[in-house]
Amino acid sequence: MSVNAHSLSQPKQNSGFFSWLWEWLSTVDHKKIAILYLFGGGLFFLIGGIEAMLIRIQLAVPENTFLVGHNYNEVITMHGTTMIFLAAMPFIFALMNAVIPLQIGARDVAFPFVNALGFWLFFMGGIILNLSWFLGGAPAGGWTAYAPLSSEFLGNGMDFYVLGLQVAGAGTLMGAINFLVTIVNMRAPGMTFMRLPLFTWTVFITAVLILFAFPALTVGLFLIFFDRLFDANFFNEANGGNSIIWEHIFWIFGHPEVYILILPAFGVISEVIATFSKKRLFGYSSMVFATILIGFLAFMVWVHHMFTVGLGPSANTIFAIATMAIAVPTGIKIFNWIFTLWGGQITFNTANLYAVGFIPTFVMGGVTGVMLAVPTADFQYHDSYFVVAHFHYVIVGGLIFGLFSGFYYWWPKMFGRHLNETLGKINFWLFFIGFHLTFFFQHFLGLMGMPRRYFTYLKGEGFDAFNMVSTIGAFLMFFAVIVMLINIAYSAVKGEKAKGDAWEQGRTLEWSIASPPPEYNFAQTPLVKGIDAFWKEKMDGKDKMTAAEPVGDIHMPSSSIVPFLMSISLTIASLGFIFSAHDGVRKPALFVAGAGVVLFFLCMLARSIKDDPGFHIHKEEVIETEKGVR
Amino acid sequence: MSSVKDNVTALPLHPEKSTLEGKNKFLGFWFFLGGETVLFGTLFATFVALRHQTSGGPAAEDIFGMPLTFLSTIILLTSSLTSVFAIMAMRDNSLGRMQLWFWITVILGLAFLGLEITEFTEYMHEDLGYTTSAFSSAFYTLVGFHGCHVLFGVVWISTLMIQSFKKGITTVTAPKYYVASLYWHFIDVVWVFIFTVVYLLGILGG
């Protein structure tokens, strides 16, 4: 903290719990926000994981009474919603924050304040959603919240769903805009678009998808919100409403959402496989092209979630063909990864094991995806365990494998210490075997006719063995996560210290600076001369990047508590709206909601009035800090 | 920040895009407007799907009147023009002229809001409540969302103008004025679509 202590408008740091807390509540440093996202998302990942275990325990044996009826519905709803919105998304944002500015040679993101706001909105949204457990029951309408079930027939829990996701979604949208601008405007000299590392490219396309998909969800949630709290008629058939509108809106958001999730995983896999094959990524341009094409097609396929609604053969056919078309760019990527591995000097550490394990697993998820894209066949698969198996193969076998690969790969960069490889390999094999045991047999359960979302099945239906295997697999995955937690704790205490180029064969810019990077990232903005900029310099016999500027004072943004306050005010507003559904307290609750909204706008006003001059880290301090790390 | 004073005397040609922060704001706001387009697009789609579902309540052709909405349209279109004048004045580094045009924009915005409230009150009297039918819910939600955007714009531009007395036109403040005017154009464009899709189509009964 010697850097801060000398700085102009930064108060001298005091030690103690409250100053530590204050530092984390008010930070606008993307590297710290990455850690916040990681642990915030990790918390919800554990909650969602426990919910998954409850589901698998209930389904382990036929006619079980461990968790039935409404409670089971609550748990499956919260499992899906938590895993998608509160675990997967923040994990992605954790990697984005930790890596993107470093990969493009930037000192910061474009909007550090908005970045912090995005995190706190996500986190408070998650808290609002999970408060439902203690305040009258969780949402129970499935993560898709189909109307009119969600808009008319379910209790107060749905209000938590609507407002929690609204707040968290706003945070995600802000984060996306921030990274779009960062990638367009903040690239180091020479870092052209076609020299961007592939992780940056995939995040760029993901951010575009978030930007154009999330507002649809925002509107959909508002419509349910108005139907529930102000008796609007959007989904109320009795007064002319139409519940199919919800399905369209939800999936116009929901389908791009699955590509929002998977594209960054593609990016991670591309980085990890290239690094640990000691080869340039095969077919870089085709990878970029495939990413863009997947992003484009993501908006053209939402009706494949609605084949059984009855939109007619023409609509179903068009969307079926568009869906199958996505297999083409995805196939390009799979082949490129294999060709990158081909003839490479491959290191099989944990990060690369996850990456290599990803390839066949994701292909299997992709193949069932193409099967589901056939409308006539879909009538058989629809709402069966086949669908459950498919989307867990692409989301767990795809995204989570990718994220875990990324965690092991970038952990030394984020924290300055390696994760333990032995524990890592135990973690991988438990998770990999557990995953396939859990979900592979669910394909057959689905084809045999076991419907999803039902809390039990009868004896003698032939579902017993596969369900038991599936539950055993789930426990293996659970143990794998515990091993990972032990690994994290071990690494924090005894982990091997990481060098700047932690894997000694880093290719991209983040490996050219210290681990963890200093507050200002790059002492001198690097000059980029080609794809895999750092590798290129190393091949030219250098050990660091060519600088694009002399060492000088570095301007930094001041930290601010306002993002946290803004999130708190929206939380107050949300709770006010949620309780306005109770007849007795409608007026005071709406007053609280209004007060929360006003508080939010006052924070915005305060932000607008007070210009942030930031502070400078002086040249001498930069030189001093750089000496320390080398 | 001694540089602020220097900038007052020598403002760059495009003060809103002369710093990296300015460029970031400019681009970030365009992206934001892209998201807003989807937001309104979804609301429009919902409205179009439900606009004949009157459920026994008043229909569009029964209640919409041309003169009032036409007046609203003229007022809002004019306010877009005045915000352009304000930005031209900003580029000329003429604080007084910029404030004048932005204040006129704000007044026109308030006039528009006044007309909208009058209009909604009138419909309420003609028994088109928010909960009457799917059409009424969709109508009030779409037009109300736009109205809230206008209200936000009015408050935003006003607070910027109050600040401008102290802060003047600098490379720090110019991007703020500029994106506020972008926002104002955007809600104007949305209104053009509302006028066409909601009112003109409604009155034609098509």
Automatic annotation (TrEMBL), chain A:
Keyword Cell inner membrane carried by entry: no
Reaction catalysed by this enzyme: 4 Fe(II)-[cytochrome c] + O2 + 8 H(+)(in) = 4 Fe(III)-[cytochrome c] + 2 H2O + 4 H(+)(out)
Record has Plastid as a keyword: no
Alphabetized UniProt keyword annotations: Cell membrane, Copper, Electron transport, Heme, Iron, Membrane, Metal-binding, Respiratory chain, Translocase, Transmembrane, Transmembrane helix, Transport
Name of the top EC class for this enzyme: translocase
Location of the Cytochrome oxidase subunit I profile domain: 16-529
Domain of life (superkingdom): Bacteria
Protein's cellular compartments: Cell membrane
Secretion signal span: none
Transmembrane segments: 34-55, 75-96, 117-140, 160-186, 198-226, 249-269, 281-303, 315-339, 351-374, 386-411, 423-445, 465-490, 561-582, 588-609
Enzyme Commission number(s): 7.1.1.9
Pathway: Energy metabolism; oxidative phosphorylation
GO MF annotations, alphabetized: cytochrome-c oxidase activity; heme binding; metal ion binding
Pfam families assigned: COX1
Primary location recorded for the protein, binned into one broad class: membrane
Membrane topology: Multi-pass membrane protein
SUPFAM superfamilies: Cytochrome c oxidase subunit I-like (SSF81442)
Cellular component annotations (GO), alphabetically ordered: plasma membrane
PROSITE patterns to which the protein is assigned, alphabetical: COX1, COX1_CUB
One GO-annotated biological process of the protein: electron transport coupled proton transport
Record function comment: Cytochrome c oxidase is the component of the respiratory chain that catalyzes the reduction of oxygen to water. Subunits 1-3 form the functional core of the enzyme complex. CO I is the catalytic subunit of the enzyme. Electrons originating in cytochrome c are transferred via the copper A center of subunit 2 and heme A of subunit 1 to the bimetallic center formed by heme A3 and copper B.
Protein family according to the UniProt entry: Belongs to the heme-copper respiratory oxidase family.
Record NCBIfam families: CtaD_CoxA
UniProt name for this protein: Cytochrome c oxidase subunit 1
Organism: Scopulibacillus darangshiensis
From TrEMBL, chain B:
SUPFAM superfamilies the record matches: Cytochrome c oxidase subunit III-like (SSF81452)
Record key words, sorted: Cell membrane, Membrane, Transmembrane, Transmembrane helix
GO annotation (BP), single: aerobic electron transport chain
Every Heme-copper oxidase subunit III family profile domain range: 1-203
Membrane-topology annotation of the record: Multi-pass membrane protein
Transmembrane segments: 27-50, 70-88, 100-118, 138-162, 182-204
Compartments where located: Cell membrane
A single GO cellular-component term on record: plasma membrane
Major localisation: membrane
GO molecular function, one term: cytochrome-c oxidase activity
Record-linked Gene3D superfamilies: Cytochrome c oxidase, subunit III, four-helix bundle
Keyword field contains Membrane: yes
Record carries keyword Transmembrane helix: yes
Stored InterPro entries: Cyt_c/ubiquinol_Oxase_su3, Cyt_c_oxidase-like_su3, Cyt_c_oxidase_su3-like_sf, Cyt_c_oxidase_su3_a-hlx, Ubiquinol_oxase_su3_dom
Family that this chain belongs to: Belongs to the cytochrome c oxidase subunit 3 family.
Name of this protein: Cytochrome c oxidase subunit 3
